[in-house]
Amino acid sequence: MAEWRSARHLADHFEDHRYEGPWASVEAYAASARALLERDDVLVFLYYDYTTGFSRVGVYDEDTGLFTILSEDDRWIISHFRTHWGYVRGLMERR
């Protein structure tokens, strides 16, 4: 299963997104990302990230709005946050 690249990377993203979800701690935030990745009822798609120049895998739950971004090889969790369908649809159009 994909993991965060480092504890510092995880902590930085938790600080950026901590108020977007019910995450009281870094551990809860990391567990939320992993839980989303374990589900088989979510939207999974490949897209191109123009800000980094890398292809990414997006994993999105339409019901909760939770979105996890993975490296193209599914090895690393890049980010995890809550967003809306329009944002995800825009990423999907970047293929």
What keywords describe this structure?
single chain; alpha+beta; Nuclear Transport Factor 2, Chain: A; five-stranded mixed beta sheet; 3 helices; 5 strands; globular
CATH class (first level) name: Alpha Beta
Residue ranges: pLDDT <50 for 5 or more in a row? none
What does the oligomeric state look like here? single chain
For the largest sheet, list the strands in their spatial order: 1-5-4-3-2
Overall geometry comes to globular
**CATH fold name:** Nuclear Transport Factor 2, Chain: A
Distance between the termini: 24 Å
CATH architecture designation: Roll
What can you see in these coordinates?
The radius of gyration is 12 Å and the shape is globular. A five-stranded mixed sheet has the order 1-5-4-3-2, sandwiched between helices. It has one domain: Nuclear Transport Factor 2, Chain: A (Roll), CATH 3.10.450. Helices cover 34% and strands 31% of the residues. With 95 residues, it is an alpha+beta fold.
